[in-house]
Automatic annotation (TrEMBL):
InterPro entries: EmrE-like, Sugar_transport. This is Putative glucose uptake protein GlcU. Coiled coil: none annotated. It comes from the Bacteria. CDD domains: GRP. It is found in: Cell membrane.
């Protein structure tokens, strides 16, 4: 049972992006359906388990959820522009680097010299992995590819800051995972409503694709809930490291489902990069 709990977060989070990409729609359709599905699941769990949620916990967790939307919208936009094989490893790698640095600078982790050295090695491994997965070859029929790729990568880096803040804020709370999940989902959904209104995309509320993307929210919730259970059953380090296999699942499944073309050289670099990103995650977390 404990092994299953370790694997399910990777499956849930790994399926999120391929599922919404396969369903289709604009990033606004995808983020609306995802957050609506997550909020629905959180409400059902709250009715059954009645977790204690203080006002402070609710507000802080909801604030964190709003930042998650920034990261996820950036990821959805990037998937459309440069595909799975580049977006998912790069996004995950930057998240791991960011959370590692926040842990050291803000929360005072890696106090010993050995931990600092291993942490630095882990971050360097992640950087090399990110670089390898981002390698592309310009084809004759892809004029303007470099400019689009560069612009999307810059956008992805900045929006990934939303993910980093989302993962850092709950570390200041002592509440249970289930107590945090509902307010985070409320913050996510509220942020999406604001995003849709501000960007004048209110028409997505009536579009069928938006509601089909609820499936994305359900697989996201599967990952989030089983991760909470896995942390309790297996410990933070084991649960987190195994959950990082999500990047392998999402990248490879996304490439297959969306029929992404990669040259043989790009495939080799992508696979090597994925191995290094997972290795970097292990080093920065376990040691």
């Amino acid at each position: 049972m404990n092994i299953l709990l370790m694997i399910l977060p990777a499956i849930g989070w790994g399926l999120l992006s391929p599922v919404v990409a396969k369903i289709g729609g604009k990033p606004a359709n995808q983020i609306f359906g995802t957050t609506f599905g997550a909020l629905t699941t959180a409400l059902i769990l709250t009715v059954f388990y009645h977790p204690h949620i203080s006002t402070a916990t609710f507000l802080i967790a909801a604030f964190a959820g709003a930042f998650w939307v920034i990261g996820q919208v950036g990821q959805f936009i990037s998937l459309k522009n440069i595909g799975f094989s580049t977006t998912m490893p790069v996004s995950t790698g930057f998240q791991l680097i960011g959370t590692s640095l926040v842990g050291v600078v803000v929360f005072g982790e890696c106090s010993s010299s050995t931990q600092k050295v291993l942490g630095a090695i882990g971050v360097l491994t992640l950087i090399v992995g990110i670089w390898l997965t981002s390698v592309t070859e310009q084809l004759p029929n892809q004029k303007g590819h470099d400019k689009k790729w560069f612009g999307t990568m810059i956008m992805l880096v900045f929006t990934t800051l939303g993910y980093i803040i989302y993962m850092a804020i709950p570390r200041t709370l002592n509440s249970s995972g289930l107590a945090i999940f509902l307010p985070e989902s409320v913050g996510m959904f509220a942020a999406v409503i604001i995003y849709v209104i501000v960007t004048k995309q209110s028409a997505i509320f009536k579009e069928r694709t938006s509601w089909l993307n609820i499936a994305g929210g359900l697989v996201y919730a599967l990952g989030a809930i089983t991760y909470i259970l896995s942390v309790n059953a297996n410990g933070v380090n084991s649960a987190f490291v195994v959950s990082q296999l999500a990047v392998v699942i999402s990248t490879l499944l996304g490439m297959v489902w969306m029929h992404e073309y990669k040259t043989p050289r790009e495939l080799v670099f992508t696979f090597c990069g994925l191995v290094l990103i997972v290795t970097g995650a292990v080093i920065t977390t376990v040691f």
